[in-house]
């Protein structure tokens, strides 16, 4: 082999290269190889950090704070429905024995759901002292509410009154209970939802910035590693006057595959996080809150019958809650009924963004039926037909509300499925990426060694 020695001409075949040549070429091979290995390490470090960051976001939103928010939103629903069922039982009187027993049974069921939601919220709160104090406060106040509700139900049962307003002593105790629910328990339950919801939003905002940056870092590190591998191959090909080595060619292709797969996986995980929050978590939370408020609206219908002194207040409260669920510009409840039942485009409120497509149309149609039944129910109360109003309240009004509630539950289920699919897809992508990293990293290192080691042996 003819060797070119700078400043010394050509060394003829069969003669040994000068010592400085024998020292410099292996040294340069080692330096370039070291730089190449370092660039590969940088690539896989960027992939590892990117994967860990995306997995942390999926864990928080999909398994930690996300389920906690849904649990506390369910707590709000259970609490509001507990109070509604007590009002229902009190206004039924002695003519609706079966329905009254069903209302009390539902109250007990909701109480159990509330306790389970509180227990889950306490477990998921971890070491957060503020959240634990809030949960403990809700438990304490819930105990007070249960005692007051129990007293009201017991006195009402003893009174054996006709359908409609119960005796004043029953109303007075129920006022204390419902005030405790509306002014203390429900705001605290909502605060729990807000606190954990803040964790989800903060996590999402952080990962929405970090994952794209780490994806860019993966691309830069991958291109650098490819350049170093090509540099190493070109140097060896020129120095030893041979074609590119197969081991290094395979290492280059494997690195390119790892780069493309890693960048693509991080992009898919970024999309999974976005979809899980925007198409799953956010709608589930909004719809669950809308369902809880709607249950409370149904309770306001019974309170409107139950407490004559506060009838105007409960009617106004019903309108406020209706406006929060689906908003239209209306100065009073009659105007609201008319505009909702007539229908229009561009509804606002909690359900506004969801009133698109077939599921949204079903929800809107059911809500219109519920509001139409409420209008007829209030006309009966205004005309003094209390028995007929009670019949309407637990007949047509309840039937239309149940239909509306089922459409909400179905829509919540669709968004929850979207949420679960997005989280599962993101985690599956990361699992596949991690397996690829392990195999590719070991294979590339072995291939680089296999491509460089024979060249270094020639200088031994």
List descriptors.
two-stranded antiparallel ribbon, 460 residues, mainly alpha, transmembrane, Secreted protein, transmembrane helix, 1% strand, membrane, disordered N terminus
Structural features, described:
The model is unreliable at 1-17 (pLDDT under 50). By secondary structure, the protein is an all-alpha fold. The protein is elongated and about 105 Å long. A two-stranded antiparallel ribbon has the order 1-2. The chain contains nine helices and two strands. Helix 5 runs antiparallel to helix 9. The protein has one domain (20-457).
Describe, in short, the structure shown.
With 460 residues, the chain is mostly helical. The chain is built from 9 helices and 2 strands, in the order ββααααααααα.
